[in-house]
Amino acid sequence: xxxxxxxxxxxxxxxxxxxxxxxxxxxxxxxxxxxxxxxxxxxxxxxxxxxxxxxxxxxxxxxxxxxxxxxxxxxxxxxxxxxxxxxxxxxxxxxxxxxxxxxxxxxxxxxxxxxxxxxxxxxxxxxxxxxxxxxxxxxxxxxxxxxxxxxxxxxxxxxxxxxxxxxxxxxxxxxxxxxxxxxxxxxxxxxxx
Length: 193
Description:
- This protein is of the alpha+beta class.
- The chain is 58% helix and 19% strand.
- The chain contains 5 helices and 5 strands; from the N terminus they run H-H-H-E-E-H-E-E-E-H.
- Helix 2 runs antiparallel to helix 3 and helix 2 (18-68) packs antiparallel against helix 5 (168-192).
């Protein structure tokens, strides 16, 4: 019974010692620093990748708007040109008239031709006559980025080119880096302790 009391006392003294207190302080300081650094790195990387993708979408939308000029200017040749511009990507292109009715959709499986499309980027684009973009997250946590570029004829907005793309690959890249940073933080903490 006396041995148990002495052992418990030694364990309490060990955990109450200055060495353990300093070690715990170092570990806590390192963990907090790693967390703050990770949050900053992930935020900056996400912003950079999203901005790069937005520029890519705007570039393709502007090329398509130069190809079409007006919603009535869509021919089989321009439609083939749009498909060629978008080849190798998972982008979807929709061309809308001023009344928001779809006159071209590169997704052949979709049934939106002639129907009204109400999307944030399209509405902003048509109302302001300027480029607009939006990032949307669906109920299934699927993030998409969309851009709309006006079709201007004679100084008047006569339609818009709307491009939308999934950001799944970017989100998976960020998720992978986040997981790597967590593992790295755990390894550093164990080595310091």
